[in-house]
Fold each of these.
Amino acid sequence: MSSITLTDVTKSYGNVQVIQSFTGTFADGEFVTLLGPSGCGKTTMLRMIAGFEKPTTGEIKIGDSVVSGPNTFVPPNERGIGMVFQSYAVWPHMDVFDNVVYPLKIQGVKRSERKKRVLEVLEAVHLSQYVKRMPSELSGGQQQRVALARALVGGSKLLLLDEPLSNLDAKLRETMRFEIKNVQKQFGVTVVYVTHDQGEAMAMSDRVIVFNKGVVQQIDSPMEIYRHPANQFVADFVGKINFLHGVANEGSIELAGGQRMAYSGDRRGPVVVAVRPENMAMRSDGGTLRGTLTHAYYLGDTNDCRVDVDGTSLRVIGAGNTFGQFATGAPVWLDFDEYLVFEDDGQDQTAIRT
Ligand SMILES: Nc1ncnc2c1ncn2[C@@H]1O[C@H](COP(=O)(O)OP(=O)(O)O)[C@@H](O)[C@H]1O
Ligand SMILES: [Mg+2]
């Protein structure tokens, strides 16, 4: 059983509380991602699960065993956990085989069995042909695969990954996402993955936990997080979004710039209308709001535009083949296909950066 249950877990350093009370269960075989900006407490959470940090209060269970509680503390090496960090934690003086076999030696596994298991796991991470290479002869991505293989080889059913792709170049980062996901499925491990990269979180996770300043903002599937963000922070952090301030009345929202849009929801008073760039289309006639096309950037697969609506610049993204339909400077209508209305919490949430 490799579920993880955290109950009322908090962490303070001195009198600074970096994790507010967290309660949640990560299921056996689940891929859970802790997502949030730098400094929000992701690594601290992971280190508490691993046993490198003691929670200030609360209890952590792995399967049915308490590993951390008021009267219990199981050290990291007895928690049956594999870990991979951002920096390449491979031993430079050992070749790939020796790096990966190490946990099996510690466990006292027989030599013939060791070889079989190392080769099996190296195959899974596509390193079979590099068995005798030294780390200095490997790329960053290959070194991270060595670290992943070493975390898996011992048979841990629980894998904790802390920004393992952050040091890789963009293209490799994207392929590695899918590889990690495949390896997770193949070995049937529970993964807790830490990242500040929402694309990684979306691509791999069964559930995403969005943190901000040590406080959980939302726990949901990637699709729910994207389509139904719990608040403005989540809406802004995950994906691209535009915010328009206004006041909701019965039947309509009066936007700060003066235009009105139809509204059938229940909110009243100050609101923020949140709309993703791909959920608006430009039309020559008839739509939700009027504006002026100020910029259009042809990016091949997309047409990335800015439309000025009463002084607010909105980002509108259409398919690449919509480029050129409107000249810059042309008046356009924006048709909203899907949008959200949040209560305006008065916080200075940045709208989209252009
Ligand atoms: N050992 C420590 N002593 C004091 N403060 C710490 C310590 N480790 C982390 N912090 C603080 O806790 C907060 C969360 O840090 P961290 O978990 O590393 O964030 P993240 O991984 O999300 O970037 C930060 O404000 C950080 O400065
Ligand atoms: Mg961190």
Amino acid sequence: MTFKEFGEVFENYDLVNNNTYKVHSICNYYIIVDDVIKLTNLINYLNNQNIKYFVIGNGSNIILPSIYDGVVIKLKFNSIEYLDNKVIVGSSYMLNKLAYETINNGLSGLEWASGIPGTIGASIYGNAGAYKDEISNYVEEIEVLENNKIKIIKKSDITFSYRNTSLRKRNLIILKATLILKQGNKEESLNLVKERLERRSATQPLDYPSAGSVFRNPEGLFAGKLIEDLNLKGKMVGDAKISEKHANFIINNGNATGEDIQKLIVLIMNEVKKEYQIDLILEQEIIK
Ligand SMILES: Cc1cc2nc3c(=O)[nH]c(=O)nc-3n(C[C@H](O)[C@H](O)[C@H](O)COP(=O)(O)OP(=O)(O)OC[C@H]3O[C@@H](n4cnc5c(N)ncnc54)[C@H](O)[C@@H]3O)c2cc1C
């Protein structure tokens, strides 16, 4: 099988530039798909042949293994359409880009998302959020491929919680999303974005490869504070390092592997459990 009929195909592909940790991860095939029918046919084929696969967004919330024995699907669904204060957007559209786009179109709502380097599809799938706001507040409906059929799922049929949704339990691929925003003031929105981005660069290690916050904050607490109080800042496994700037970030200090990152995560979880009897929950996803 060459997979060529489904999209642009790369064999024995290194995903190093497709994940924000910048770890090397060799997959059997990386396929860029820009058409829903082709995607349906591809999923059918992979299911029939029992071939492992996953859909990658911008790779900013995942920890990849050094070898992925399967197919990685990259969607190229970048359409964007405005209907008054609604925006209908393809799932591979970048959320941070969409924040600027909508602001420039006089719409307000996504200012909080300007520093999030993920696709809109994955951001809905995981309910991305920041500054007490989250994508669930703006979703009207999504178009998905579920059991290889195209369906519309209304917001009321999705359970959203902190960095999580009921979509994770369903084997589906988000194709498109309709978001409802409000009429805004471009200048005010851009000022808010500037403020948010300055706060991010003051507190987050943005000059190193990472995948954002590693753990969800336990109810009423901050994961970063718990880790910092254990004096774990700077701790390393291989080249995976707990950031000195923000203890809830793991950075790739050079040649970290996904396995190094996972080992460091286990180390943190064990220390936090031992000292505080708290089970930290991972915000990032380990791809197996
Ligand atoms: C510097 C930095 C700052 C960050 N700040 C924040 C923040 O403030 N708030 C926040 O919430 N997150 C933050 N993140 C994490 C990350 O950007 C978000 O979680 C983002 O939504 C992930 O999008 P992605 O496209 O990179 O997803 P990926 O990491 O590529 O994938 C994540 C999951 O989504 C699935 N997926 C991807 N596309 C689809 C699709 N179309 N349909 C169904 N499933 C799909 C994947 O299979 C995977 O399970 C940050 C990351 C970095 C590096």
